[in-house]
Amino acid sequence: MMSPRVLMFPLVLAIAFTIAAPIGLPLHATDWVSTQLIGQTDVTPTAAVDWTPALFVVIGIVSVLAMIIGLKLNAFLALILSALVVSLLVGYDQGTDAGDRMNAVVSAFGGSAAGVGIVIAMAAIIGKCMLDSGSADRVVRTAVNATGEKNASLGLMISGFILAVPVFFDTVFYLLVPLARSLYRRTNKNYLRYLMAIATGGCITHTLVPPTPGPLLVAAILGVDIGMMMLIGAAVAIPAAIVGLLFSIFVDKKMTIEMRPLGANEERHQPLEESKLPGLFASLLPVLLPVALIGAGTLATTLADREDRAALLVSDVESFDLFADKFASATQSSPAGRILASENLSDDDRARLKTTATSDEEQSRVVEIVNTALLDKDFYEPSAFADVPMPKVTSDLMKTDQVRMKPVDRRRMNRALLDAAYPELIAPHQWDSPMRQTAQSLGLWSNPNFALMLAALAAMLTFKMVRSLSWRELGIDVEEALMSGGLIILITAAGGAFGAMLSQTGISDTIQNFFAGKQAAGVAVLLLAWSIAAVLKVAQGSSTVAMIVGAGMMAAILGGTQPPFHLVYVATAVGSGSLMGSWMNDSGFWVFTKMGGLTESEGLRSWTPLLATLSLVSLATTIVLSFLLPMAG
Fold first, then answer.
1. How many whole angstroms separate alpha carbon 485 and alpha carbon 578?
2. Is 317 helix (H, G, I), strand (E, B) or coil?
3. Are 564 and 557 in contact (CB under 8 A)?
4. What DSSP string describes 415-472?
5. Long-range contacts, 38-45 (Cβ 8 Å, 24+)
């Protein structure tokens, strides 16, 4: 078996590359990237970048690895303590009270638990009920009869690949893990291969194929059509999934792992004979029900977002003469002044707004410029809107996560402000279209927490009927499932808190400043996009955040420059980079290890290199496709 130190080397190397410049190590990697790959000109010297956040991130990495691998400390304690260490360092640097920094950790832990708590609890119930009722065994038997035992892992990979398009990876993994465990009971081998096959299919589409939020937002930020992103994203994902499955087979042979019980009494119920197993529909219902509900909501929301009802139309402007006057006489502290101050606009755009548009073409151009400005995250400024009543939709959206906000929602937030500022000039937009109302009506049913609750109830009823259990006996089994799920919730939430504290160091700003001013051409654009997303992923743990920030940075770096291929390849390069370097600050790492019953060391030797493989193959496929099918312009 390969040493954990050997298998962790790529992660350590990535971290070393990230911090080489600030600490002055003689790696010369950053110089090589700057001169050979990026081709930068007039770049701000790296000495101007504040590397303190990078130092805090390194301390956090060393802390959590030392506690878990070196001291063998419980993962929950190690993550919470490391989160507190990083938080206190941030407080010291910013002059914040230590008590406030402790509250920041608690708040981040609570936010993470709120996001995963119910889902993991329901998934634990679903998993136990499907295993003990024989539902998972029925599904596995049917699949093996159709594909053959040798191709069972291929079936799991394809299932994860398809299901993760409308559903988050963690939900897909929760739903398919019972099948992997039942398959191991049937074959008594290849358990790690089955887990990695699910992870392969789920992770690759999660980062490359809309309508999953990450790639959907990347496409919107870079101005790539969603249909094009789905097509090329799938074309990039398929070769990576195939290589990932082959890599899973290789790792499984090198590192044989037996399935371990997730709870104390997991083996309490004896396996059933095939004639007593539940039917295929009842067995599949706990998996298909949440996928169908969440997928329907995702589809309806995607279609409603494509309508972009908050976008300004030519017919919404009452008078283009008065509209131009507003901009010509605008001060900085006025709503029109905020549009003119947008970094999204050029000097020509500002001049166009100040001149009356007479022709249809000029009016369309003015509306296009305003819509571009309405995507500015800094559009709202209190002094500029002091006399404007704050619309409720704007105040509500301002309280949400601004980093993960979809462009369509940002435009809606800012358009409502513009409507309120100039009611005599601009007709109010109508947000609630029939499709939007359909999406809203599915809000409860497509909520992952509610959908998995229904799935858990379905699994419980099947379990009760097949095993002829009393409600009390069923309650005992459910309680055992929740006890095992509770530990997973604690560890996953602690990992989320640790990642949040790393983000609060300001590492994203440091990375953005480091890459600021760099220019790229040809394949270097793709390498730069991948590198930015990869460094962001290693530093703060979230693939979605790495994709959003990375796409925003690439949009700024490219400006109006069109590379010699379609921008969809920049989007897939960003998505590929967001898979690189997944470790203990990534909630996906803990979902994989704890729901799979693996140790932290086993997770670092399987999950981390698997995602690195998917990342590199996706990047290589992106580069090849950009040459073979550039679709430039």
1. 28
2. strand
3. no
4. HHHHHHH-TTTBPPP----HHHHHHHHTTTTT-HHHHHHHHHHHHHHHHHHHHT--HH
5. 38/518, 38/519, 38/520, 38/524, 38/528, 39/519, 39/520, 39/521, 39/524, 40/517, 40/518, 40/519, 40/520, 41/519, 42/517, 43/517, 43/518, 44/513, 44/516, 44/517
Q: Quick check: 196 and 251 in contact, CB under 8 A?
A: yes
Residue 342 lies in a domain: yes
Would you say residue 410 lies in a domain?
Answer: yes
pLDDT per position as a tens digit, 195-244: 999 999 999 998 999 878 789 889 888 888 888 999 999 999 999 999 99
CA–CA gap between residue 621 and residue 617 (Å, rounded): 6
What is the rounded distance in angstroms from the CA atom of residue 78 to the CA atom of residue 67?
6
In angstroms, the first-to-last Cα distance of the chain is 50
C-beta neighbour count of 358 within 10 angstroms: 10
Taking CB atoms within 8 Å and a gap of at least 24, the contacts of 469-478 are 477/128, 477/129, 477/132, 477/268, 478/125, 478/128, 478/129
Split into its structural domains, the chain has a count of: 1
Judged by phi (left if over 0) then psi (alpha if -120 to 50, else beta), residue 506 lies in: left
Q: What does the alpha-carbon distance between residue 185 and residue 259 come to, in Å, rounded to a whole number?
A: 9
Look at residue 14 and tell me if it is in a domain. no
Q: Which domain holds residue 375?
A: 310-429
**Cβ neighbours of residue 534 under 8 Å, at least 6 residues apart?**
14, 546, 577, 578, 580, 581, 615
In-domain check, residue 459: no
Q: Collapsing DSSP states into helix, strand and coil, what is residue 197?
A: helix
Q: What is the pTM of this model?
A: 0.77
Q: Which residues pair with 426 in a beta bridge?
A: 317
Judged against a pLDDT cut of 60, whether residue 18 lies above it is answered with no
Task: Tell me the CA distances in angstroms from 205 to 216, 456, 568, one per residue in order.
Answer: 11, 25, 15
Distance from C-alpha of 217 to C-alpha of 548, rounded to nearest angstrom: 7
